[in-house]
Amino acid sequence: MRHFRSLFLFASFVLILVLAASASARPEKWPDKIRIGFIPTEGGSAVESRFKPLADHVEKRLGVDVEIVSASDYAGVITAMAHKHLDFAYFGPKSYVEASKKAGAQAIALELNKKREPGYYGVIITRKDSKIKTLSQMKGKVFAFTDPNSTSGYLVPNILFARDLKVKPENHFRQVKFSGSHGASILSVKNGTVAVAATNNIDLDRMIQKGQASRGDFRVLWTSELIPGAPMAARNDLPESLKAAFAGALFAFNGNKEGKEHLQNGGYGFADDSTYDTIRYLKYLKKKMANK
């Protein structure tokens, strides 16, 4: 893992130099405004507030207007890119895989966690004062997924249920819900609306930063292996110079300590479409196990 991280950081450094050189002048084919879509990790207005410093940074670096676009669900961002209503988008890994197939999305960077690892961790949480202390004690409770296109909020925990626990959620839990966002899942557990929920460490940190939850509110029942970081993706028919300049702007944001603290991440690193082949495999595995 240490060797992988060293190679990853070196590749990112080399790419920054290349992108900085390629983005030194604004080509005529660039639009006057670019639209960046964001999956609903939080409510719509919260998403806009969360990512505004990044959008302002990109606007300044590229010399074009930047509009933040949020949607009520993950599918809405995929559809918007498919209809060319978005130029770039922040996806989860699973929703990116769907967008690459349906909307011509092309991964150009990924979100690092606070340890500057190229990914994040899925978690299953319950209230700290809950009697649920192990995964086996979830049976018969109300469980919340996030969205069918969520990675940590749907795909990864489904692999856990099918491969490791040998259970089907619809049979194992008293009720299964979709909350719509990671923030909603976290608050549902905190408020007792659901007993257990699937989310991830980055969005849990974001809710804590906002003061809507504290770490002491929850017990983490399970933590996944490292999931490839959430990608920033471009529509594949955009000018290559614009894609390169956008990625370069994201990497330059890594020097903004206050901005990263606002985002509750460790900045951005290199990614391409092959980064998410592991997610494609997990999708295949989930489908295969569902057919057994």
Return Rg in Å.
Answer: 19 Å
Termini gap: 34 Å
Mean pLDDT: 91
Oligomer: single chain
Q: What is the tally of helical segments?
A: 11
Largest sheet: 6 strands, mixed
What structural class is derived from the secondary structure elements?
Answer: alpha/beta
Listing every helix as H and every strand as E from the N terminus to the C terminus, the arrangement reads HEHEHEHEEEHHEHEHEEHHEH
What is the CATH C-level name of the largest domain? Alpha Beta
Tell me what the structure shows.
It contains eleven helices and eleven strands. With 292 residues, it is of the alpha/beta class. It has two domains: 2-117 and 229-276, Periplasmic binding protein-like II (D-Maltodextrin-Binding Protein, domain 2); 120-227, Periplasmic binding protein-like II (D-Maltodextrin-Binding Protein, domain 2, 3-Layer(aba) Sandwich), CATH 3.40.190.10. Strand 1 (33-38), helix 2 and strand 2 form a beta-alpha-beta unit. The longest helix is centred in the N-terminal third of the chain and has 21 residues, at 2-22. It is globular. Residues 1-10 and 17-24 have low confidence and may be disordered.
